[in-house]
Amino acid sequence: MHPPFLYVLGERVELLGALALWLVIILRWPTARRSHQQKMLLIAVIGIAGSITVYLDPVTAALNSTFTFAESCGLFMNAWGVLSSALILDFVLAAMSRRHPWLIYGPMVLTIAALIVLNDTIAPHAGCVTTEAVPWYSPFWWLLVAAHLVGTIPCAVLCMRYGRRARDDRPLRTGLLLLAAGFTSSSVFWAVVLAFLLARPAWLGALFPLNIGLTAWLMTAGVCMPLALTIRRTARNTSALWRLHPLWRDLTEAVPHVTLERPHTRIRTVLGGPQAIHLRLYRQVIEVRDVLLILKDYVRPEVMEHARRHVTSQDLPEEQIEPAITACWLRAALLAKTAAATPQPNPLATERPTHDGLRSETDFLLAVLRARTLPAVRSFELPPDARTHHASATTTK
Asked: How many Å apart are CA 217 and CA 2, to the nearest integer?
């Protein structure tokens, strides 16, 4: 590829990456600020985002036309880069429980002051420090590069270290490793700067925007991981809430006193934020489970055994057997409840549910809902003695 093409491609990747990174930071901030560690990490990422942003051509042009300080060969950008490195290093030390702000921000101020002084004294004939006017061995370049690497390299190592430890939490592991790759990419950028100062190849200078853009997208992916998980979890809960509503409606109409609030319409139920959706699903599952416990008293143990024999005699997959059995005795219980039969304590009602998590409970109840349409469930009939019992109970009432 030709250097001009690489540069133009890199500018586009850089611009889109910076916009995506700031968008994710804004979306993550409300939840990240509740956790000190997450807030410190996000502040470190904000430092990187700021460094990327000030190198965008439209931002650089705006700074040059606004601030006199910015006209001094990118001193504003360099000063912000040193500040971002301090923010990153502050996060690293805080994560290691060795945070001493004065050890970080004191040297930061001295470094920025040194860069300003060097800019005015090291190349007086050129007016300021540039790659054309000042050679690679100038202390200006080494101080600037060291100021960045002292923040990005430890942060990359820290994210890599904790990412490799999080073996049981795959999303956390992926997010930390992506952030480690982002900080590594930022470190590579300054290594490329040194290589460019030494050899001055045009194609290497054309890689600057592409390298910065890659850093932005890696940071975006790492910061976005919790947000993506929240979106995925909310979408799954919303779908489950929508699909479970018919079963919840049928059961709570039969036993209305289990509901904690006035029932909403199906559309109204799935409207709201992630926390609201989660709480509604949790409440709906509990209410359905309460109704199932109540309706068990309307079914005799022999009816449940008959339902089990009926379902197991059918050619059903293993995962459909238990939901189909529940759907069968539930159908008998609703008929008895509608016929105003007298509930009798059912010894099986004290059994603990086999599903102990919200997701597994939801999946089981959705399987029961689907099982209600199976031919094996629709063909289920009460045994003759149970029909006689129900009929006599109804007559007594």
From this structure: 23
Q: Are 155 and 91 in contact (CB under 8 A)?
A: yes
Rounded distance between C-alpha atoms, residue 378 and residue 372, angstroms: 7
Confidence at residue 67, expressed as pLDDT on a 0 to 100 scale = 56
How many CA atoms lie within 13 Å of 291's alpha carbon, on the beta-carbon side?
28
* Residue 351 buriedness (CB in 10 A; 0-12 / 13-18 / 19+): exposed
Q: Are 376 and 310 in contact (CB under 8 A)?
A: yes
CA distances from 7 to 42, 202, 204, 291 (A): 29, 10, 10, 65
pLDDT of 350 strictly over 50 = no
Above 50 in pLDDT, residue 239? yes
- In angstroms, how far is CA 210 from the centroid of its own chain? 27
Distances from the Cα of 222 to the Cα of 204, 219, 258, 312, 344, angstroms: 27, 5, 43, 49, 57
**For the whole prediction, is pTM greater than 0.90?**
no
Residue 396 pLDDT grade (very low, low, confident, very high; cuts 50, 70, 90): very low
Q: Quickly count: other Cβ atoms within 10 Å of residue 65's Cβ.
A: 9
Q: What is the torsion angle, in degrees rounded to the nearest 10, for the CA atoms of residue 136, residue 141, residue 147 and residue 153? A: -30
In SS3 terms, 333-377 reads as: HHHHHHCCCCCCCCHHHHCCCCCCCHHHHHHHHHHHHHHCCCHHH
One-letter amino acid for residue 232 of the chain: R
**Closest of 264, 377, 258, 272 to residue 329, by C-alpha:** 377
- What confidence tens digit (pLDDT) does each residue in 164-222 have? 887 777 888 888 899 899 999 989 988 888 888 887 777 777 788 889 899 999 999 99
Give the 3-state secondary structure of residue 242: helix
Please enumerate, as own/partner, the contacts of 346-350 that have beta carbons within 8 Å and a separation of 24 or more: 346/296, 346/297, 346/299, 346/300, 346/301, 347/301, 348/296, 348/301, 348/304, 349/293, 349/296, 349/297
Q: How far apart are CA 36 and CA 181, in angstroms?
A: 23
